[in-house]
Q: What sequence folds into this?
């Protein structure tokens, strides 16, 4: 019978898949942005079913709470009433794009299926939500010992990005489309 | 959620009670605000409907419910209706993860001819191993309620108010999270229950290798993190859009900001959301910095001994002990809510650029300094 | 039924299937959408799909390196989203359009 973990996985996978499909199919870009928010919350749920509690919380704080708010705010500032075409025109190029994506997806799925039919040995380990703190301690000790160089480089990267974004925003001009 | 039907039922009821508690606290809070503001402004508040004006909010609720339900013409239906609902969700989820009292241990008892085994009911909605970051993550979803309201109303005032409000909320989230890093360092855990347990008893700390105990001060977080408490409390004012940070909903500026086009019950839901956020902020303040449900001088054994003199039976004793500690926490939360209301009617509001400067250029550096200072002090004192 | 048996116990391959599907959806979005910001959002979707795959492997190999990698990927993706949005705002200020149809022939 379906265990709770399996049911949760299927529910969250369905939510994520449907909202991901909504991202690419919605006409209004703000609807796309909100569907992406739902998708990210679904992915945070998937991280929880995989026992990565700290990463799920970081996903909520960083992605669903900050990056997507930024996307939605920028979209609301643009006056997009005269959005001409949401999807690319041209039937032949559209079919080619669909075909190529289908080929990639088919190859990936076939490869995963083949690997697992040869070696179906990954068994789920029972989860223990109380050891979230130990995992966080291990992650932080890894970050500060083995990966400290990457950690510091990320800090420099964020500083450069912040300076770059502020510089880009100082170019004069207005965001109103009808002026 | 539990191993048999009784426990599952009680847990579901507990979550419902916690949610309804937030919703029912709002009329009391609004009454407190109206009477309190009247007291500060040297006038009488509502005092005609019911004793001391307590039923005024019931009359207001009936009025809200009977108003006409409209959707603005240029607005989008889904966002317009979804925004008030979205305003309630983060507050409820965050409040349900805060420990409200000590767990109740129920001995086996007889009912309807069956024996129900020993249970332990925790006085929380759910007990998460990642308490603090869960609350931070969920409260960062509060910005979406503002954006959905602003966009769904289809009017320029709403949109500008929503953009300002959400920019303010995400700016002060940073200072909020950083001020909590100090608490994480001092207590070394994300787990709410452990943080509250570590604040029991008298003030104990390590100073240059030996352990110092000051018996007349409680072991509360505010003595370990005064700067962090100050920054956290100020940042929660900005997160809940309360004065002095409430430019996005100020009347003279933007009509009513993101809830201009809302009337009737949906407006009421926004109110519940805002006061719910205030409630969560007060509860977090009490949990992190003021000892949660502990009170100096009250220990679970002492209270249990007191109640066993009054009532017999281990189950009733446990329940009453837990309720006593719940009352302590509620008293602390009420105090902080009063501080929220007091500050609202005392200070003038910030201009928007002052507000953003304060968040980025003052609170964020001070929160970082607090982190570094905590690290240095901990390093020195643990030599 | 054999397909019900494979469906009922969720193992690593289910998470990888989900990751592959999300990745393909994101790629399709980049190819067929014409709004610069929606393209950026589809890039974010692809990065999230890859994050799911990393965490799934980290869980099933009992190795925390996957979670560290996700940490870095998340940070870089957030930074890139910020720069992408700043660029999009600049483009909009200059050209009054965010439809990439107008930028196919940019010179210089």
A:
């Amino acid at each position: 019978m379906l265990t709770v973990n399996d049911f949760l996985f299927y529910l969250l996978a369905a939510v994520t898949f449907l909202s991901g499909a909504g991202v690419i199919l919605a006409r209004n870009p703000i609807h796309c942005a909100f569907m992406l928010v739902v998708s990210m919350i679904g992915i945070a749920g998937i991280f929880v079913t995989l026992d990565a509690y700290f990463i799920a919380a970081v996903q909520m704080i960083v992605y669903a709470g900050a990056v997507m708010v930024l996307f939605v705010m920028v979209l609301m500032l643009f006056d997009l009433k005269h959005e001409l075409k949401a999807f690319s025109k041209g039937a032949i190029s559209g079919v080619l794009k669909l075909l190529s994506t289908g080929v990639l997806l088919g190859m990936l799925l076939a490869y995963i299926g083949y690997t697992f039919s040869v070696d179906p040995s990954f068994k789920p380990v029972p989860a223990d939500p109380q050891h979230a703190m130990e995992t966080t301690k291990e992650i932080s000790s890894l970050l500060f010992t083995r990966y400290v160089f990457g950690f510091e480089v990320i800090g420099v990267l964020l500083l450069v990005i912040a300076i770059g974004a502020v510089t880009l925003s100082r170019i004069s001009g207005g965001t109103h489309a009808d002026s | 959620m539990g191993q048999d039907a009784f426990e599952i039922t009680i847990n579901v009821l507990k979550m419902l009670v916690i949610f309804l508690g937030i919703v029912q606290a709002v009329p009391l809070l609004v009454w407190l605000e109206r009477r309190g503001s009247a007291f500060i402004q040297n006038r009488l508040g509502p005092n005609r409907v019911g004793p001391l004006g307590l039923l005024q909010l019931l009359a207001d609720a009936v009025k809200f419910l009977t108003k006409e339900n409209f959707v603005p013409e240029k607005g989008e239906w889904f966002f317009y209706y979804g925004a008030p609902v979205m305003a309630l969700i983060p507050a409820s989820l965050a409040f349900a993860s805060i420990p409200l009292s000590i767990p109740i241990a129920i001995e086996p008892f007889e009912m309807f001819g069956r024996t129900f085994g020993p249970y332990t009911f925790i006085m929380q909605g759910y007990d998460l191993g990642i308490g603090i970051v869960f609350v931070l993550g969920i409260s960062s979803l509060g910005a979406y309620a503002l954006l959905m309201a602003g966009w769904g109303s289809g009017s320029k005032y709403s949109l500008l108010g929503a953009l300002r409000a959400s920019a303010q909320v995400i700016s002060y989230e940073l200072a909020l999270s950083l001020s909590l890093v100090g608490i994480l360092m001092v207590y070394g855990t994300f787990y709410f229950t452990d943080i509250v347990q570590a604040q029991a008893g008298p003030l104990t700390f390590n100073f240059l290798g030996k352990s110092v105990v000051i018996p007349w001060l409680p072991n509360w977080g505010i003595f370990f993190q005064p700067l962090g408490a100050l920054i956290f409390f100020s940042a929660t004012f900005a997160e809940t859009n309360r004065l002095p940070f409430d430019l996005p909903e100020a009347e003279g500026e933007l009509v009513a900001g993101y809830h201009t086009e809302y009337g009737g019950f949906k407006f009421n839901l926004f109110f519940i959301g805002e006061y719910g956020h205030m409630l969560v902020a007060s509860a977090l303040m009490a949990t992190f910095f003021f000892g949660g449900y502990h009170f100096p001088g009250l220990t679970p054994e002492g209270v249990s001994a007191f109640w066993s003199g009054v009532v017999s039976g281990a189950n009733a004793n446990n329940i009453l002990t837990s309720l006593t500690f719940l009352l302590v926490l509620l008293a602390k939360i009420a105090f902080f809510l009063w501080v929220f209301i007091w500050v609202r009617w005392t200070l003038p509001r910030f201009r928007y650029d002052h507000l953003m400067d304060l968040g980025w250029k003052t609170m964020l550096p001070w929160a970082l300094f607090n982190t570094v200072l905590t690290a240095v002090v901990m390093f020195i004192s643990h030599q | 039924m054999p397909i019900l048996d494979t469906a009922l116990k969720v193992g690593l391959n289910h998470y990888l299937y989900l990751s592959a599907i999300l990745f393909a959806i994101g790629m399709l979005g980049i190819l067929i959408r014409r709004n610069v910001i929606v393209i950026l959002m589809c890039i974010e979707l692809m990065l999230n799909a890859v994050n799911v795959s990393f965490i799934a492997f980290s869980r099933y190999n009992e190795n925390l390196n996957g979670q560290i990698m996700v940490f870095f990927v998340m940070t870089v993706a957030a930074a890139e989203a910020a720069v992408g949005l700043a660029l999009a705002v600049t483009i909009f200020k200059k050209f009054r359009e965010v439809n990439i149809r107008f930028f196919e022939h940019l010179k210089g």
Observations:
- Residues 2-103 of chain C form a domain with the Helix Hairpins fold (CATH 1.10.287.3510).
- Chain C has four helices and no strands.
- Chains C and B do not touch (no CB pair under 8 Å).
